[in-house]
Amino acid sequence: MNSPTPAVGQPLDRVDGVAKVTGQARYAGEYPEAGLLHGSVVSSTIARGQVLAIDSREALKVPGVVAVLDHAHRPHVSSYDDDYNDADAANGSPFRPLFNDRVLYSGQPLALVIAESLEMARYAGSLIKIDYSVEAHQTDLLAGLQHSHPAPAETPAPRGDFDGQFGTAAVTVDATYLTANEHHNPMEPHASTVLYKAGDQLEIHDKTQGTQNCQDYLHKVFGLPKDKVRVLAAYVGGAFGSGLRPQYQLPLAVMAALQLKRSVRVTLTRQQMFTFGYRPRTQQRLRLGADADGQLLAVAHDAIGQTSRIEDFTEHLVEWSGMLYRCDHVALSYRLTPLDVYTPLDMRAPGAGSGVLALECAMDELACAAGIDPVELRRRNFADHNGNEGKPYSSKELLACYEQGAACFGWANRSPQPRSMRNGHRLIGWGMASGVWEAMQMKASAKARLDAQGHLTVSSATTDIGTGTYTVMTQIAADALGVGTEDVTFLLGDSSLPTAPLQGGSFTVSSVGSAVRQACQVLRSKVLESARATFPVLANVPLEAITFAEGYLHFAQQRIALSDIVAQSEGGVLEVQIDAEPSTKRQPFSTATHSAVFVEVEVDEDLGSIRVSRVVSAVAAGRVVNPKTARSQILGGVVWGLGMALHEHTQTDHDQGRILNHNLAEYHIPVNADVGDVEVIFVHEQDDIVNELGSKGVGEIGVVGVAAAVANAIYHATGKRIREFPITLDKLL
Fold it and tell me: Which residue, 581, 616, 634, sits at the end of a domain?
């Protein structure tokens, strides 16, 4: 028999693609229900203070308005304790909507209007009058730096003698970089549809990256048995981290449903998408010292990020500076400044997006100071060990990323002198940066079921936030059992399915994919056991002579359909469920993805307008399960990086403590005209240690390093070093 082409590694079209483009895919705010009520959130207009009174009388007179909930009129929820914690909660006391009369930030939900239609609810909400006692607030990170405190996360301990080595280094850089607040703004706004059934049974369609996290959250907050709460998220219109924690529309919708004993939907407006988590603003100081040949002697990375007054949000902001390059003398520090704002939240490549930006800009400054090509400087400081952990990398093809990325980009033709390359009145700049992201694996479970028609159904409670989870799990399952992808259905997005971690951190394929593979392998053994018991012809065939492929069990020029084997087994169905733990082979190693990003910018010499004309991103992420969906992930990450460099900035009026540009007209993100040619290269990387699949994940690595490469290219084009992001015309001119 000719061996069939494995499904893993093929650019399979998305199996959910047809449902999405034909409108068959339903999202959280689209599930119909007879008698469904609609909720509209009324938000605070002050940043800090106390609610003295909420006057809902005029709102309740509006025809079709059923109720108004506020802190004085709502069903019982838990007290100010840990019951509001969830799987992605930060240290502290999580936000509790409608808990009491305290106003903690501008935009805080203070009331929920429930009506027969969304339009009625929103109109009635505009009639609610709220009296406040206003208190002084602070929302400006730079104005509150003196009140910062050490982050509760464990920052790697100092190693070596930074001060001594930096003080005597032949070449040094001491620079401070500022990054802006950014909001996730996925295409689908957050929504929760709570379908109420008799006996307080709730079926909930929620925009989330973790159905079981939401189920557990509601179980604790409302004291509901888990078997009465089922959370579903069959389709998610983007999330980027915004769905890692249950957002406030979920408990509000449940409050209303429990109080009214009716089904309720709460959908947030685009403006209200700016009233919860975001990538936090940071101030980062980088000090690098090197010898005359560019070898790093000393690295210090001191960062301050903003957080709320109720939780200490931490991310891996400075660790990258202690692991990406080889250096024996490293000092890292990370502090937080509490402000009258909502708690920040993980956003695509949390920590690395901001931290590597600062590191890679500083490395470019070091290259310029030392008179060394930026790629060559990074080659000279390549690290095959993670200096923070003292462990070798399971694999690290970063040198190959430099080589292949530079060759594709044409880096050898770069003139090193700033302002030395031009096309007419446009200055041309070439910049580059390294990227790094951790390659994690979490515990996950999966169930595999083969029926008498030969159809394989695999399930796990993970979600698909647009990354291609439906598709890659189908490919993994098909190969593991030896069936065609057309004979596989993957079920996800349901809290009643086998346990899965939150979908984030680029570890879904590593974690859930490993569980799917193991479940199908165990099912294959079960199929073989059943076949040997049913078909005497197999009795003397050695195991090594039996293969599974194309829906058949093959042996000695013969084959038996898997459907025939299952049909003759007891019950006509074979199924298994397994719990997959992270591979023990990982423990002695550090595991990470890496990239090299090359960027060309064109800067109008008179106007200062910037256009990114070319990007090459070379990525080493282990085995790529689906090159098509993986490439899409990198393309999206690159565009996000361009936005971080040039566009995205959640602007706050600090006098009012209020976000100014809380819409997609004024919160700028890259559009088609802003994005030039983007080339993605997947560098071959064999890794038998990171997990059974050898796959590291690509959701985050596409973002990391892009903004720094853009900034470095702008310096090369103009000779101006901009250290505050995003880089806008006013800063450049």
Answer: 581
User: Chain-centre distance of CA 496, in angstroms?
Assistant: 23
| Cβ-based burial of 291 (10 A; exposed 0-12, middle 13-18, buried ≥19) | middle
Report the C-alpha gap between 3 and 458 in whole angstroms. 24
Q: What residue ranges of the chain have pLDDT lower than 50?
A: none
> Whole-angstrom Cα distance, residue 494 to residue 503?
13
Q: Tell me what pLDDT residue 153 has.
A: 85
Same domain, 431 and 446: no
**Same structural domain for residues 724 and 597?**
yes
CB-based burial, 197-210: b 16+ in 10 Å, e otherwise: eeeeebbbbbbbbb
Amino acid of residue 637:
G
Of 389, 575, 700, 724, which one is the catalytic site residue? 700
**Domain assignment present for 303:** no
Same domain, 399 and 265: no
| Residue 224 token pair | 């509901």
Entry field: residues in the chain: 733
In three-state secondary structure terms, 18 is helix
Tally of helices (H runs) and strands (E runs) in the chain: 16, 33
Pairing of strands 547-549, 552-555: antiparallel
What's the pLDDT at 540? 87
Query: Which tokens belong to 690?
Result: 């990171």
DSSP string across 346-411: --SSTTHHHHHHHHHHHHHHHHHHHT--HHHHHHHTB-SEETTTTEEBS---HHHHHHHHHHHHTG
Residue 673 has a pLDDT of 95
Quote the CA–CA distance of 243 and 648 in Å, as a whole number: 20
**Strand-pair category, 37-43 with 264-267:** parallel
Catalytic-residue membership of 700: yes
Tell me the CATH number at 603.
3.30.365.10
Tell the burial category of 45 from Cβ atoms under 10 Å away from its Cβ (0-12, 13-18, 19+): middle
Q: Going by C-beta distance under 8 Å and a sequence separation of 6 or more, which residues neighbour residue 321?
A: 286, 299, 301, 330, 332, 355, 359
Token pair in block for residue 675: 């994005």
- SS percent in the chain: helix, strand, coil, step 5: 30, 30, 45
Domain ranges, residue 701: 345-439+591-731
Count of C-beta atoms within a 10 Å radius of residue 417: 9
**Quick check: is 649 in a domain?**
yes
Q: What is the pLDDT of residues 523-555, one digit of tens each?
A: 999 999 999 999 999 988 998 999 999 999 999
SS3 category, 231: strand
Non-local (6+) Cβ contacts of 450 within 8 A are 456, 457, 481, 523, 527, 562, 566, 573, 574, 575
Asked whether 426 and 603 are in contact (CB, 8 A), the reply is yes
Q: Which two tokens stand for residue 640?
A: 């996000």
Q: How far is CA 339 from the centre of its chain?
A: 24
Q: How far apart are CA 436 and CA 701, in angstroms?
A: 6
Q: 637, 667, 656: which is closest to 181 by C-alpha?
A: 667
Record the tokens describing residue 392, joined without a space. Answer: 């070798």
Q: Kind and range of the H or E element at 432?
A: strand 426-438
**CB-count exposure of residue 544 (10 Å: 0-12, 13-18, 19+):** exposed
- Among candidate residues 288, 424, 292, the one with its CA nearest the CA of residue 360: 288
CA atoms within 13 A on the CB side of 169: 28
Here the CATH number for the domain that contains residue 268 is 3.90.1170.50
Report the side by side order of strands in the sheet with 558-561: 547-549, 552-555, 558-561
- Residue holding tokens 């009635």? 124
Sign of CA dihedral 416, 417, 421, 425: positive
Structure tokens at 547: 């293969």
Over residues 115-167, the pLDDT tens digits come to: 999 999 999 999 999 999 999 999 999 999 999 999 998 899 999 999 999 99
Helix (H, G, I), strand (E, B) or coil at 14: coil
Note whether 474 and 501 are same-domain residues: yes
Q: Which helix (H) or strand (E) holds 165?
A: helix 162-168
Instruction: Assess whether 396 and 430 both reside in one domain.
Output: yes
